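User: Show me a protein chain along with its predicted structure.
Assistant: Here is one chain, sequence first, then structure tokens.
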Amino acid sequence: MAPRRGGSSGGGSGVSIDNQCSDYGAFSDDYSKAQIGLLGGFLLLFLILAFCVSSRSGKRKKAHLSKPILRWYQYGIAIFLIIALFILLIVRYALLECHVLYRGAEDTTAIGVTTVVVNNVAELFMIGLVMFVIQVKMFQLAGSESIRRIFKILNVVCFTIVCLVFGAYIILYGLITYRVAKTTTSQSIKSYSRLVQAYVVLYALLAIFAIIGLVLATFRLRRKPERKEGITGWVPVLLICVLGYAFYNVVVVFIDYYDYSYNDAIGSIVGYGISLLFFFGAYFSMFMISRSAGWEWLDGSGPVAMQDAYNFASGQHMSTATYPNQTPYDTMQTDANKRASYASHGMPPTPTPPYAPGQMVYSGGGVYEHDGQTYSTGNWGSGGYAPVHQMPTAYSAPMGAASREMEHNELTGRR
């Protein structure tokens, strides 16, 4: 899937293709069968991947979950371009086998030019997703905001340089292909070949830079075990696939331009199959990374259970996150003594006593009265609301009444 040599003349044939494929023995040799089999097989794999992405996105939307880190305008468009690319490759190869297109001039036709452009755009999408989505989001998940900003700026600069070289070589490729002005000269073709070589080398260097950032983000994320779940395990697969695909392009282009004697059909088809495997592996590993549970921490929810709670100030029902050693709040907002005791002891409160505050009269000192009886809010274990530093006492109606009588007499005597 690397750029091919351009500048050759030729084009489509105007001859009727009725029975032409059988006349030329299309797909009769093992090489052509393997080639079309590889293209068809990987087209099927990318169709399955597209279905998985669409199905998962629909399920998350129905469940009102947060959006995945790979959005449709990023990953979805890339998958669409790849599916279109494989369809174009299959059609072009079929036309070559039927001799509707001439070998050596297949990239000078409209379908050939479109294939080359879409192929390179899909490559740039792949490295862009790694640099601007996976890598940046991993830094954000690890809490390394300063490093994330630095890499984001460097990524933009490096990616822009590669895109400029790609644009220059594609423009010159189109001018040479359609013989615009004097662009078919040997000097123009030599300039084109240099641009192609510069593009694949810069793309490989860009892949290395993206991998460096990804490795650093992985080490940062490993410091947070609760957030790395399902993410760091697929990163090595992504590294191997991105680097393998980038260096395969370099090897193919330099063999194409400097080793004219190379004509190993078996080696070519094996290498092409490995490059397609790297290409699919990169997109598949990005999908597996994006569906990991650790990304839920980005939107503030995390894999934390949600439970009911009450607002202290208003008493309104609301939902808050559950943290370790935390229990649901009870109606402590109804009693200042209880709130003070909770703040002092630092222990979670227990449920309210069997008497609702509206049915009992609070007489102070941690004692409730109900129908002439008393209820001592002794200790936390018995469900009471003892004021700060008050020693708990057992429930006793006579003792409670006597205590109040003694207090009344003492106050009266002092007066």
